[in-house]
């Protein structure tokens, strides 16, 4: 077998005709500046061609359903294995997906509970066992003597189809009647049944009377019935109630029977197991009163109720008609703060007056009138409109006022009571899924089973332990199996897929991973690296796009791409061992690894402005009622091992509360007691790595607002004035100046059916997006298209004489995006690039000194050189008096912070406490801080 992957002439995106040879069956790291071409080479070239070749091996019939992959722009790739991509965007956001279902551990748990589970009565909790015919007879004979009853034996329960065989069996048994869906029929009759409909069918035994000597006849009847039925027996006491007995499992005290234990009974995605009330979701989305009345310091007349259709406070509005009628009828003032109203009084506005009729009066410009009617309430009105509305915009507006509430029947456990009443090791399947991976491993380690149970469950438990071990090995020991897949970060999702791949034990596969170290504390990094090596040692080639120094040290081979980013990148700077990269003088990566370049420590820590933002009693998820102080006017880092509670504190509590109070966003914060210091802030800004736009029409120029200034500049040129063009003429989003053949896209999509869709430049505008007349307008010899094709660096020089434009472009340059084209489509920007576009937009605004910026792991996807620039940008925000709050694992960022809030000490149930708070120097000497232990060497 060929021992190398040989790439010739790779030109995808910014790659410049790259030739490269990569050793097979090795751990390879691809690194380089953000935007240098790492992902273009690893994912868009190597992985894309591996996938394309697999697809082409299938028949054309199969390909029409699976789709086609376009051939990457590369001359040839030899030595390519089947490729599997493990990126950060593949875990399901379906609310039914959990860590347990994604890893398939839950499938094995369902099998385990179906085979060795012990059923209990859902009402009294007593252990229940299968009943014998004699036990059922004993129960019937306890009825008072003389009681008349009939025996009903279900043949079919809730199944579709025709039941000729079952009914024929009933005829042969000598019973002459059958009950279908509650209606009684003689067997000689034609019994109406629809094969497409679910039916409940019982055969009916003759009426019996409880008296001496009935035992033998009843026993004979039951034994005959058992051979025809599902093992369920109904005793219908004439004139009374039905009593249910079971040859499977039943509680004699509460007439509850549990059928045969099957895996589907424990699935919340199957009607046999899912809670009937919530359908297995465990929660509802309901109108949240806290979002309808977000500020209880306001009165009703001041607009305390914030909901579409109920915001108008004019005297002639419908909302004020109802509010005034309630005020008059119940003597409630509309001018006192809502917090001074009793719950009963406020509920009249929110949930209505029931059947109580109000006298309603309304005066408008068209006249006045009055009538009597009850009031349904704001919340009931919103719920009704949400159900009935055909308008997507209206439904979206209402959804902003909704929150998830736990199902009142299953209390978030997703399953039916009968399923939750089955235990293994003393706990039900939902309780086991609420355990963290570490706790689950410990549970199975100490699980006591009988010899028979051990024989049945041995292989199942082996598979469960194996998968739990893989999750622990990639640093996810703090996750619970019930954790919704949609709440996982990109790094967590990727490591779950990595653990699943190890479990598959494939060999000869090419794995390509995108920064698996994201969101991982240094303490857990060694585990991840060991896992990557294990995947390699199985006989696979592992390519990792990564900036982490520890991963590079562990790699067998490193490919450094650069030397710059964007148009300045796309070349192989150096390829070889770790020592080769360190020795390469042209490698920016090597310069940081060798220490020739480094991120310096600040000369001093900022003192701040002496004010603080304090949150007391933070208790969301695993946070343990902690008090946190955030000094303002400083660069503040929240640190801790994965799962310690950082996101719960910063994203769920701090950001959501500040956004609701300062920005008037309709967000409900996580659980905490109280907050002080809000008066020192004017707004909160969350700068994440989400795209700046979902379509190619969005670009850095449109997002930062500089495109508006550029269009206005072109509108002021002599050419434009002569032709009567305004600024709108130079927009590719509206009719007038754009090319109508491609509607301003510059490209056309041609559907090829069996072949991949082909994108070709528009024949009319040749990809320039504008019509001929618009492109004839020039500023300093350049058309509007020429300007959009410039890099930011070129734009700064070109617009040097226009301060308004130059200033915004310079901020893009300052955040390290000088290589990006001014009109580069948003869809081609990486997460780190999108984040820096947002940062540049904030830098271009006039500082107030009272803003707090929140960033969640801003170093994701950034090279050390880019982290250096990021720190400089964040420092500029702080130097103008603002506060920057970041969640971070990167020690280069942590070491330059003014203040650190370290959570932990462990993840999951072992975290959620405040380990330490103070300067980096104070954290470094704290004996219980894992962060401090790894930070110490960086402070020398």
UniProtKB/TrEMBL annotation:
SMART domains: AAA. GO terms for molecular function: ATP binding; ATP hydrolysis activity; DNA binding; excinuclease ABC activity; zinc ion binding. One of its GO terms (biological process) is SOS response. A zinc finger (C4-type) spans 251-278, 739-765. CDD domains: ABC_UvrA_I, ABC_UvrA_II. Pfam families: UvrA_DNA-bind, UvrA_inter. Its main location: cytoplasm. GO terms for cellular component: cytoplasm; excinuclease repair complex. Keywords: ATP-binding, Cytoplasm, DNA damage, DNA excision, DNA repair, DNA-binding, Excision nuclease, Metal-binding, Nucleotide-binding, Repeat, SOS response, Zinc, Zinc-finger. Residues 608-936 form the ABC transporter domain. ATP binds at residues 32-39, 640-647. It is found in: Cytoplasm. The UvrABC repair system catalyzes the recognition and processing of DNA lesions. UvrA is an ATPase and a DNA-binding protein. A damage recognition complex composed of 2 UvrA and 2 UvrB subunits scans DNA for abnormalities. When the presence of a lesion has been verified by UvrB, the UvrA molecules dissociate. Belongs to the ABC transporter superfamily. UvrA family. Forms a heterotetramer with UvrB during the search for lesions. This is UvrABC system protein A. It comes from Ruminococcus champanellensis (strain DSM 18848 / JCM 17042 / KCTC 15320 / 18P13). The gene is uvrA.
